[in-house]
Structure prediction request, 236 residues.
Amino acid sequence: MTRQLNLPLRLSDSASFDNFLAAGNEEVLAAVRSVPGQERPSPALFIHGPPGSGKSHLLQALSRLTIDYQRLTVYVPAGAPGVGPELVAQLNADTVVCMDDLDQIVGDQAWEESLLELYERLAGGHGVLVAAALQPPAGLELKLADLSTRLAAGGAYRLRPLADEMLPAAMRLRASMRGFELPDSVSRYLVRRAPRDSAVLFGILDRIDQAAFSRQRRITVPFIKELEKEVTSSDR
Prediction:
């Protein structure tokens, strides 16, 4: 039986390859997306980039796609509460392991040893470790030099954040995948008012969509201003 492992880790409902705007990241998108369809993939693939560049989105989209391929997969946010080296020890040799925030465990001997053991286990089966961090393996200052080499075995790809001018298009794409149309006036307003970080903007957009649905309102700039006033009032 192939599925996502029964672990206390949830995938974002909105993470998919269909709502990821490549815009300069076509190579890394193709590399990650191809993983589930490879019968004998390289045991490891690495993606790195600054906060908000889409690393978590890609890893969760990969885990979701792997389920569609009827393969065993797990998304692991390293350093999150309840996530430790003992979790990695549970994973078998045919698992597609999507390891996020690898920076959080750099220098932890137990973690590094468990990841090296995981790599060797996956190399003996049909599994693969797809890991993400802010820096490439060579820049992580890992204690185990062998681990740095293994992590880059299948290539280390840099994920570039979306340029500011691409953020409205990315928001419109996300909105269309959620089943609603985002007016240009709204996307421009949000980009002006919120941090220029796609992850933050997408989170805001999702909350606005939920609020509009619950109140049966159209998403307009006046509606967003109403929500802003409510948040400001509740913070007083």
